[in-house]
Amino acid sequence: MELTWLLLLFSSFFFSITTAQDDEVCSRPELGESIKLEGLQRYFSFGAVVVLACKPGYTPVQGPRTIVCKDTGTWTDTKLKCIPVQCSYPDPPHNGQLHYENTQYNSTVNYTCDEGYFLTGASSAVCLVDGTWSAPEPQCKPISCGPAPIPQFGMIIYDKIIKVNNINYGTSGTYKCHPPFALFGKERAECTATGQWTETPQCKEVSCPPPENIENGFMSISQKRDFAYTETIKYGCNDDYVLDGPHIVCEKNGEWSQKPSCKAPCSIGIKRGRILYKGRKLWIEDLKPNQVLHGETVSVYCMGGDSNCGYEVLTQCLDGNLQIPECFDEPSAAQYSLDSGSLPSEIQQC
Ligand SMILES: *[C@@H]1O[C@H](CO)[C@@H](O)[C@H](O)[C@H]1NC(C)=O
Ligand SMILES: *[C@@H]1O[C@H](CO)[C@@H](O)[C@H](O)[C@H]1NC(C)=O
Asked: Which of the ligands is closest to the CA of residue 110?
C-alpha cells in the first residue's frame, strides 16, 4: 500500500514535470529574415516577453514589437514588418551607363562606360546599412590616342581644331603628302576605342617617264624628262584634226593617264547634191575644201512620201568617216545640171 502510494506520487510528479515542460515552453520563434532576435536562447517559458527589432539595413513599419509565449506553447502574433533601407537613385556617369535592379539595402549597382571611354573609380557600389552607397559614382574619361603618327614627307589635317595633349577617341583627320610625294594607304584616319590610331599611310616619290606624242598632234612641252606625280601635259592637234580627250596626268602608279587622240576631218562623199552645213544650204561643189571636222554634223536630202516631198537626214563626221545615209540618191549628171529643181532639196519639204 505504501509502495503503491509512493509509486503513484512519483509517477504523477514525473508526469507533472514532463507536461509542465510541454505546456509551458515556447521554442525560439520563427521570424522573417529581416527581424532580429537577440541571444541564442532556444526555449522560452510561458509568459516570456520578447522584444523584436529589425536587422541592420531594415527599418520597422507597424507594431507591436513584442511577442509573448502563450500557455499553448505558441507566440502571440506580431505585425512588425522590416523593410529594407533605400539608397538614393544613383546618376549614370557622363558617357556611361548604370545597371541595377533596385536601390535597396544590399543591392548592387554596376557602372560601365560607353565605347571609347574608360572608367575611373569603383565599377560597382553596394547599398549600405545606413542608406548610402559604398562607393561614389565613378567617372568615364575619354580614351586618348595622342597625336597621330605622321608619315615621312606627309602630314595630317585634323577635322577640328584640337589640343595636342587632348586627342581622344573619335578624333579624325586626313593625311596628305607633301608634293610631289604620293599617298599610299588610307587617307582618312581616326583615333579608335583602343587608344590606337588607324593605319598610317606612306608617302612615296612617284615619277612618270617622258610622255609620248600623239598621232597628228603635239605636246605642250618640248624637253624630254621624267615628270612627278600629279604633273600634267596638254596636247594639241595639227590643222583640221580635233582633240578628243583631256590632258594627261602622272598617276600614282608611275604611269600617265590615258592620252587623248586627234580625230581626222571627213570629206563628204557625194559629187552632186545639196547639203545643210552650219545652218547653210550649200551645193556640194561650193563647199571648199570638201571637208568637215570630227564631231560636226551635216544633213543631206532624201526623197520622201511618193516622191513628192524632200527631207533632211543628219549624219556626223567621226574620225575621218562620214556615212552618207542610205536614202540619199545621187542624181545623174544630166538631172543635176538640167533639172536640179526636181531634187529632194529643192521641192516641197515633207
Ligand atoms: C553587376 O555585376 C556583377 C558582376 O559582374 C553581376 O554578377 C551582377 O549581375 C551585375 N548586376 C547588375 C544589376 O547588372
Ligand atoms: C547581402 O547580399 C549578399 C550577396 O548578394 C548575401 O550573401 C547576404 O546574405 C546579403 N545580406 C543580407 C543581410 O541580406
From this structure: 1
pLDDT digits (tens, 9 = 90+) for 28-67: 998 888 898 888 889 999 999 998 899 999 999 877 788 9
Q: Rounded CA gap, 104 and 108, in Å?
A: 9
Q: Does ligand 2 lie within 6 Å of residue 340's CB atom?
A: no
For residue 224 the three cell numbers come to: 624630254
From the CB of 104, is ligand 2 less than 6 Å away? no
- Does one domain contain both 27 and 78? yes
- Residues 211 and 233 placed together within one structural domain of the fold: yes
- The CA angle 340-341-347, to the nearest 5 degrees, is 130
Q: Which residue stretches of 146-296 are H helix?
A: none
Residue 8 lies in a domain: no
0.70 cut: is pTM over it? no
In a domain, 134, yes or no: yes
Say which ligand is closest to the CA of 109. Answer: 1
124 lines ligand 2 (CB under 6 A): no
Q: pLDDT tens-digit profile of 279-323?
A: 999 999 999 899 999 999 999 999 987 878 999 999 999 999 999
251-272 burial by CB neighbour count: b if 16+ within 10 A, else e?
A: eeeeebeebbbbbbbbebebeb
CA 40 – ligand 2 centroid, Å: 21
What residue's CA is closest to ligand 1, atom 1?
A: 110
- Domain, as residue range, for 37: 22-84
Ligand nearest to the CA of 125: 1
The answer on 158 and 182 residing in a single domain is: yes
Residue closest via CA to ligand 2's atom 6 equals: 106
